[in-house]
Amino acid sequence: MNKLSDCFILSNGVEIPCIGFGTWQTPNGEIAFNAIKAALEIGYIHIDTAAIYGNEKSIGDAVKDNDIVSRKELFITSKLWNSNQGYENTLTAFDKTIKDLQLKYLDLYLIHWPIPKDFRENWQKNISSTWKAFEKLYKEGKIRAIGVSNFLPHHLSALMKNAEIEPMVNQIELHPGQTQNETVLFCQKHNILIEAWSPLGTGKILSNPILKKISLKYNKNVAQLCIRWSLQNSFIPLPKSVTPSRISENANVFDFEISRDDMDTINTMSYCGGSGLNPDNIDF
Ligand code: A2P
Fold this sequence. Notes:
eight-stranded parallel beta sheet; binds adenosine-2'-5'-diphosphate; 10 helices; alpha/beta; 38% helix; single chain
C-alpha cells in the first residue's frame, strides 16, 4: 500500500481503499461536515459511518457538496443499528440510511453488533433473518459488499451456518494491546477482510512509552505508527479525527516500514487502553 487510494480486494472482487476515515463520535452538523470536507481534500476516499453515530446527514451533505471526487471513486460504509435487527426492520433501516446519506447505493453495509441487549435469548435466529435482508439488498445491487462488525468466531459461525452469501468484512476493535488473534485468524481462514475500529485505541494508547519509543525511530508519531501497524497486518484502519492537522498526519503513513522485530514487539504488547467493550455483554 503506497497511497490512500490503494486497495485491498474483498472476497467478491470489490476493491476497498486501504484507510477509512472514521466518524464514530463525530457530531452531526458543522463538525462532521467540515471533517469530511477536510478528509476529501487530503485524499481520503473511504468513509466509515453508522446509523447510531447520528451523522449520516452531514456526511451526505459534505459528499454531495464536494467536487474533488465522484461518487464512483468513493467507498462509503454504514452499519445497521441493534434495535433494527430482523428482516423487515433491516430493510426499513437501510432505506433511512441511504436517504440520510443521500446516496443511491452503499459500498458496504455491516451488522453493527452480534447480540443486542434486547435479543440475547434468540440472537442466532435474529442474526439469520437480519442477514437474509442483507443478502436481498446485496442481490438487488443496493450494496456492493456486506459484512459484520464486532463478531467473534462463534457469532460468525452462527451466521454462516444459514448464510447463502458469506460476510466479506468483519470490523472489530483492533489496536496495539488489543489484537483479537483468534478472531483475526478465523476471518483470514474464511477470507473475511478485517477492519480495525479505534486503531488509536480511542486516543488512549497514544502516550504509551513502548509505542512512543518505537515511533521515534521512524520519525513518526504514535498515531502514525498505529495506523501503519494496521496496514502491515493487512487490517484496514479507520482512524477518527475532526482536527485537520491530525486528519492529514494520519494519512502520512506510506513513507516508512515498521521492521519485523518492531512489528513483533507491538503484536505482543499487553492491553494498554481502548473501549473495553465485549460483544457478548454489551448493554445496548
Ligand atoms: P480528534 O477527533 O479530536 O482529533 P480512534 O480512531 O482510535 O477512535 O481515536 C480517535 C481519537 O484520537 C479522537 O479523540 C481523536 O481526536 C484522536 N486522534 C486522532 N488522530 C490523532 C492524532 N494524529 N494525534 C492525536 N490524537 C489523534
